[in-house]
Amino acid sequence: MTLIPFIKYQGAGNDFVIIDQFDKQWLSPGDEKIINQLCSRRFGVGADGLILLEPSEEADFTMIYFNADGKVGSLCGNGARCAVACMHYLQRFGTEGTFMAFDGKHHARMEEDGSVEITMQPVDSVELNSRYFILDTGSPHYVSFVEDLSDLDIVESGKAIRYSDRFREHGINVNFVEELEQGIEVNTYERGVEDETLSCGTGVTAAAISYAIKHNQRNGKVDVRTKGGDLRVRFNRTPLGFEDIWLGGPATRVFEGNVEIPG
């Protein structure tokens, strides 16, 4: 048996198993079955995803993100914020720097209150009609505004869209958004997890941008409520799209330990 050290973090209810691979490579993208088991809530540590922290020649570190099914995922916004917080805890990252992810380089900073902000890639293409918005914020997202989130079965409604003819092959994350007096509330069904999660960073970003388009908001901030906690999205809007996008919110260490795996 192999004993792997890990640290568990959560960001607005999105939880992750994080493994430091600066000194030793414990896992690789081929270890799909092991990663899936580690993320299992009944047979493993339990998490929405797993993150490997590795050295980078272009930034302070590289994060490799895996969905709970064990497959390499695209960008995970809350996972990235937790990765930054974990690197800070490991004394490998100061209060401001950069990291590499699936979609390229991101800037990040630790706030005085312990929250973490990261940049998201610019968004220059949004498909929209009267019923939904589709855009990529590091991961592909479908955004639908509803009158009352409590009237929806998020899992069944999200699954129907995610497994529709258009999205069945590659999948899409599905976000249902209710407008509030101040900001929005977002519930998300995530591909890879294939269930509702308490929060989704790229989904929150997609929802905030959709809200800005819907209300012709030029620049500023959108406050977002999720089942796992509050997040915020800041951005600048130009004739070409959205840039200087920042996702911010809590990133908290839950516990750490060692877990045995075969081999």
Question: Quick gist of this model?
Answer:
Helices cover 17% and strands 43% of the residues. It has 263 residues and is an alpha+beta fold.
What distinguishing features does this structure have?
Diaminopimelate Epimerase, Chain A, domain 1, 2 domains, 263 residues, 4 helices, globular
What does this structure look like?
With 263 residues, this protein is α+β, with helices and mostly antiparallel strands. It has four helices and 17 strands. The protein has two domains: 2-106 and 251-261, Diaminopimelate Epimerase, Chain A, domain 1; 126-249, Diaminopimelate Epimerase, Chain A, domain 1. It has helices at 32-39, 77-89, 154-162, 201-214, and strands at 2-11, 14-20, 49-54, 61-67, 96-101, 104-110, 116-120, 126-128, 133-136, 140-145, 173-179, 184-190, 195-197, 220-226, 229-238, 241-249, 252-261. It has a 17-stranded mixed sheet that branches. The chain is globular, with a radius of gyration of 18 Å. The model has no long low-confidence stretch (mean pLDDT 96).
